[in-house]
Amino acid sequence: MDLVQKEHERLWKRVKSSKTINDVQKTIDLLQAARDTISVDPTKAPTTLAKLQNPVKTSFDAINDDLKETYSGLNKYTKALDKLFKDRPLPSIEYDALSSQPDLINRAIVMHLLREGQFSVATTFLSEISNKKLPAQSGNVEPNCNKGAEAFAIDQFQSDGIRDQFTIMYHILHQLREESNLIPAIHWARQNREALESRGSNLEFELCRLQFVWLFRGRKEQKASVSGRQAALEYARSDFQAFVPRYLNEVQQLVGAMAFYPNLDDSPYRAIFNNPSAWKDVAHTFTREFCSLLGLSADSPLYIAATAGAIALPTLLKLQTIMKAKRTEWTSQNELPVEIPLPPSYLFHSIFVCPVSKEQATDQNPPMMMPCGHVIAQESLNRLSKSGKLKCPYCPNESQPRDARKVFL
Amino acid sequence: MAVELTSTKLNAESHLLLDQPLLRLPHELARRNFKSVQRVVEREKEYLIPALKETANASLARTRGPEQTLESLDAMISRMQGLKRKMENLQEEEKKIHMESRKRIQHLQDLYRISSLADVKYEQWSRIRLDRLIVDHMLRWGFSESATQLAQEKEIDDLVDLNVFVQCQRIADSLRRGETKVALQWCGENKAALKKSQHNLEFELRLQQYIEMIRSRQLVEARQHAERYLSPHSETQSREIHRAAGLLAFPPDQNTEPYQSMYSPQRWNFLADLFICTHHELLSLPSHPLLHIALSAGLSALKTPSCHSAYASSSSNSLSSTTSVCPICSTELNELARNVPYAHHTKSYVENDPVILPNGRIYGRERLLEMSKNVALVGEGKVKDPTTGETFDVSEMKKIYIM
C-alpha cells in the first residue's frame, strides 16, 4: 500500500507540473510571431518559415517527452497496484443465491437506510424501484410477474410502517442526544411498559433515574442548585412510586444522595451522578429495546453482514484457490467447509457441535441430554445405543436411550 | 474456544479484497485520458509539421503569394489553439481523476492504521465501506438518483464512481429503447481497448442495425451495410453472418427459427446486457455488485442452523433484553439467507456455567438469575425462562455439561 501511495504521489506531482500546455502555447507564440513578421514584411516569408521548422519540431518533441514521462509514471503506478492486489482476484460467486433475489436485497437496503435515519434517500430509492417495476410489468404478460409486483406492494406498505416507527425512534433519539430531553423517551417506555417488563428491561427506570440526576445537577451543569434539588425531589415524589417494588435499593440510593449534595463528588454516590457515558448508554439501550420490540436486531444487519463478509472473504478466497489447485469439491451442501474467524461480538447464537460426530446440531439432529447431564446429538445417540442401553461416552453412566431429553440452546 | 475464532486482528492487506475496483477504475480512466492526450497531440503533430514544411517550400519557390502563406499560418494557429483547448480540458479531467485516486488511497491507508477489528475506527471505516457498496449496488441496478443522494448525504462522492455508471446506464437504456447510435459512438471511442475484448459488441450492434433495416424492408441498404460492417468479421462470426444472409429471405412475419429470434425485441435487452458486460470488463469492474460478494460471504459466516430453526433460540431472540437479535434472524436478511450455507464450527460455543430448565432450555446460570431479578412478578427463589415466560423454582435448574 505504501508503494502504491508513493507511486501515486510521484504521478500526481508529475501531472501537476506537466508543461505540455506551455509547450503548445510556445508553438502558438512561434507561429504568431512568424505571422506578424510576414505580414509586416512579406519578403521575409521564406527565411522566417525556414527558421520556424526546427523550433516547432523541438516543442513537439518536448511535449512528447513530457507525455512519455507521464506514461512511465502511470505504468509504475499500474505495477504498484498489480503488486498490491497480486494473487488476490475478487472471488467469484459460484453459488450465487443473491442475484436471483434483487427484491430482497433492495428491501434490506431500504430497511437499512430507514434504520440509519436516511429517510429521504430511502424514499427516493423506493420510488425509483417502483418506477422501474411498472414498465417491466406492462411489458410482460406472465402472471407470476403480477404476483411479484403485488408482493412488492405489500413490502412497500410494510416499509411504510417501519419508516413511521424509525421516524419515531429518531425523533426520540434526537431529543435525547441533542436536547438532553428525556421526556419523549420516558413517554415511549411508559407506553410499552408491559412489553419491556416481560423482557426484563430496565429501560424505563434507567431513563427516569437519568432524568432525576439531570434535574438534580441543574440545567446548566451548575453546581447542584437549590432549585435543581427541589425539582429532583418533586420528580422523585411523583414518578418513583411505581419503581419502588422492583428498584427499592436504587431509589433509596438516589434519594439518599440528597444528603450529600455539597460534596457529591467525594460521596459514594459519585458513580451515579457523575457518569459521563450515562447518556450514551441510555441512548444505546433505548435503540436496542426499540428495535427488539420490532423484532429487529439493534445494529443494522446489513452492516454486520457486509463487515463479516469482508472479514470472511480472504479465508474463502484461500479455500477457493486450494480447491481449484487440488481439483476437489466440497461435499457438505449446507455448510461452509472452513471455519471463519470472526470477532466474538459476531457470535450471536450458542453453537452446539456434537462431541461424538463433530456435526453441528440442527432441527433434524437436535442436541439430546442424557440423565448424567452430558449432551450429544441425536444421531450419535441412536448410533451409540445398542441393545436398548446407552453408555455415556464421557462418564461411566449408563442409561436408557428414551431417558435422553431434547434441549434448546 | 479456539483462538482463531475470537481473533480480532485486522490484516489490512487481505482486507482490501473488496476495494480493488476503488483504485483500479480511476486508474483505467486516467490511462484512457492519457491515451486521448497522446492521440490529439500526435494528430496535430502529423498535421502541423508537414504543413509548415510545405508552406515554407512553397514560399521559397514563390508558388504561393504572401496572402496564401498568411492564410495557411492562420489555419495552423487556429488548429494549435484547438489543441490547446482540448489539452486543457483533458488535463483538467486528468487532475480530477488523480485527485480522486489520491483521496481513495488516503481512505484505504486509513485502514492500515487500524490494528483491531474491535476498534471504533474500524467500525467507522466499515460503515463508509458499506455506504460505498450500497451506492455501487444502486448504480448497477440503475437507481442513479438514490445513489447520488446517498453519496452526497454521506459525503463519499470521491469514493464512488457516479459518472461512470450513470453514463454506462444511459447507453444501456438507449439500447433498450432500440437505439444503437450512442453505443456505437462508445465503441468508436474505445476501439483500441475493444480489440482485446472477447465480446464482439460492435459486431452485434452492426448486426442489429442490419436486422432493423430488413425489418423495415430496406433490403438494398441492408446488403450494403452488411458488406461494409459485417463481412470484415467473417473469420470469427461466420455462423452469424450466414444467418444474417438467410434473414434476407425471411420477412419478420414468418415464424421460422432462428430468424424469428433474430427479429425478437428481446435482442435489445441482450445487447444492453452485452454492453454492460463489455463496459465493466474494459474498466476492470467486477461483474457482480460488490455488495453481493460481501453479503453472500457475510451471510454464510454468520448463519447458524438456529437462524431458520422452527424453535426459538435460547441464546438470541427478541423476547428478552439480555440477548441481542442475531442479524440473520432479523427481518431484513432472514429470507435472503435462507439458501446460503451456514458457518462451519468445530467447537461448541455456549455461555459459561450452563444450566437446564425443566422445559429443556439451556441458559448461562448467571444471566438467568440476573434476568429473573429484573423481571417483575417473579418471587424470591424463582427463575423465569426468558424465552417462554414460564417460571420455575431455582432448585429445578440443573447443571448441564457441554463438551
Q: Overview of this structure, please?
A:
- Chain A has helices at 2-16, 20-40, 45-84, 102-115, 119-139, 143-178, 183-191, 193-198, 203-217, 226-239, 244-257, 270-273, 278-293, 301-326, 378-384, and strands spanning 367-369, 375-377, 390-391, 398-399, 405-406.
- Chain A is mainly α and 409 residues long.
- Chain A folds into four domains: 2-83; 102-134 and 149-160, no CATH class; 165-293, no CATH class; 349-406, 2-Layer Sandwich (Herpes Virus-1), CATH 3.30.40.
- In chain A, strands 2-1-5 form a three-stranded antiparallel β-sheet. Chain A has a two-stranded antiparallel sheet with strand order 3-4.
- In chain A, a hairpin with a 5-residue loop joins strand 1 and strand 2.
- In chain A, helix 4 (102-115) packs antiparallel against helix 5 (119-139) and helix 7 runs antiparallel to helix 9.
- The radius of gyration of chain A is 36 Å and the shape is flat.
- Chain B is mostly helical and 403 residues long.
- Among the domains of chain B are: 9-113; 164-282, no CATH class; 354-399, no CATH class.
- In chain B, helix 2 (20-60) runs antiparallel to helix 3 (66-112), helix 6 (162-176) runs antiparallel to helix 13 and helix 9 (201-215) packs antiparallel against helix 10.
- The radius of gyration of chain B is 33 Å and the shape is elongated.
- At the A-B interface, helix 1, helix 2, helix 3, helix 4 and helix 5 of A face helix 1, helix 2, helix 3, helix 4 and helix 5 of B.
- Chain B: This is Protein FYV10.
- Chain B: One of its GO terms (molecular function) is zinc ion binding.
- Chain B: It is found in: Cytoplasm.
- Chain B: Residues 326-388 form the RING-Gid-type domain.
